[in-house]
Amino acid sequence: MSSEVMSQNEIDALLSALSTGEMNAEELKKEQAEKRVRVYDFKRALRFSKDQIRNLTRIHENFARSLTTYFSAQLRTYIQINVASVDQLPYEEFIRSIPKMTILNVFEVPPLEGRIVMEVNPNIAYAMLDRQLGGRGSSYNKIDSLTEIETKLMTALFEGAIENIGEAWDSVAKVDPILSDLEVNPQFLQMVSPNETVVVISFNITIGEISGMINICIPHVVLEPIIPKLSVLYWMEEKTKARQDHEIAALKQAIRGTHLILKAELGSSDIYFSELLDLSVGDVLPLRQKIDQPIIVKVDEKPTFKGQVGKLNQQMAVQILEEIEEGVGEDE
After folding, report:
1. Phi, psi (5° rounding) for residue 139?
2. pTM as predicted
3. Which of 192, 235, 262, 265 is the most exposed, having the fewest neighbouring CB atoms within 10 Å of its CB?
4. Distance set, CA 47 to CA 86, 198, 202, 229 (Å)
5. d(CA 60, CA 87)
6. pLDDT tens-digit profile of 103-158?
7. Which residue segments constitute the domains of the chain, with CATH numbers given?
């Protein structure tokens, strides 16, 4: 920014040139307008918003924590992994940025289409291999001549590593990662067209005194079906829905433990208090309830159901016939 600030001498010289006619003010305006034009490279068209990139970063920070636990257990040493950057760029640019000979784990994530590649720096890959074989984690680069045993050990190690992708992506997609190939030469790896936009997640990894990079390259075709789920609005809706589901479940649990009084009324009648005092065994009270009409079943004194009286296993019982609609009285 400081290079754009003019000194007092430069300001005086500019004013002098304008006053003497050596410089035309209109030409100066035109020149400034031309400077505002920026060259746009359509080969590097951005297909992911900053919002989506931030959510991809959050997802792969969880993946980095899972990888840390997995590699620490497999290699029996302390491993440190964290997300260094998340960028979108053409596939061709990604291929040019990685070493000419490296470890390339190609895997699929069904049901999503396309393939993802996890590139592991040779220094890190051989440090891992040395730990697996009982060494101290020393690194040496002979990636151009992997033996069959080394290939088998690395394949088994990275097959377990990519399984953690499924857990990290669980919030946006249910995937089942499958390691399909292990390559060492990027030139032989043609997953998508050179101009296809890919997201590259770079991880810093440290094993003892050895440090390096792991890069995950995800083509746009893989992420396209789940792009809407990478927006902040979706994440907020998911959190809101989860909270509502939790509240509803808690409310249902509380209701199930509530004690209510269920009362079936056979009918009602009005008498004087003096008649009540004179009642004796054998007296009959006429009820307003007809024998062919359903009785009212109350829940905590509120008319809730209509039912009929009967017997079940030699005991008095009430069969529920229908629910009383809100606002319908027991006299109806």
Report:
1. -125, 140
2. 0.57
3. 262
4. 14, 9, 19, 15
5. 13
6. 899 999 898 888 999 999 888 888 888 888 888 777 666 666 678 888 888 889 99
7. 2-38 (no CATH), 44-235 (3.40.1550.10), 262-323 (2.30.330.10)
